[in-house]
Amino acid sequence: MFSNYKPTWMVDAIYKVTPEQLNKHGIKAVLTDLDNTLIAWNNPDGTDELRIWLESMKKANIPVIVVSNNNAERVGRALQAFELDYVARALKPFAKGINKACKDLGVEKDAIVMVGDQIMTDIRAANRSGVKSILVRPVIDTDSWKTQLNRMMERKIMKYLLNKHPEMKWQGEIK
């Protein structure tokens, strides 16, 4: 029933995903949500950990594109210091934004992964578009009011998925 929300992997944080892990799974590009995945939703400055992670992806020639439901002004302002491409108003949980990013990359979908902190938007959109997905824990425990509504439903879906798929466990890396 809720299998469309099942992530490929569950990792504690995006920063724990390394180029070596991605290469092992044939991943050549990363799509990522913005708020509470890369940065705290209420602090667009990012962290040193984010800068180090982005540099490791750049050195490994693994492009990173942000796919966000936020408007272009918000996403552009948040990413200004990081020099990342992005797709704004992605309309997740629909596949539109992910499909656009995949087309822009020119990489086959089986070599792309979407990383996000919400199964209702990020993981559902990844599954709809046919790319692998990594569910990460939110960077901080608070959410914007819009996301709080999703989190209530998300808890029910996760409970169902964890009961049906006991292999779903939080990991320190993708295995």
UniProtKB/TrEMBL annotation:
Q: Name one GO biological process term.
A: riboflavin biosynthetic process
Q: Kindly state which keywords UniProt assigns to this record, in alphabetical order.
A: Hydrolase, Magnesium
UniProt GO MF annotations: phosphatidylglycerophosphatase activity
| Listed cofactors | Mg(2+)
Q: Which InterPro entries does the UniProt record give?
A: HAD-like_hydrolase (IPR051400), HAD-like_sf (IPR036412), HAD-SF_hydro_IA (IPR006439), HAD-SF_hydro_IIIA (IPR006549), HAD_2 (IPR041492), HAD_sf (IPR023214), PGPP1/Gep4 (IPR010021)
Task: State the source organism's domain of life.
Answer: Bacteria
Name by which UniProt lists this protein: HAD phosphatase, family IIIA
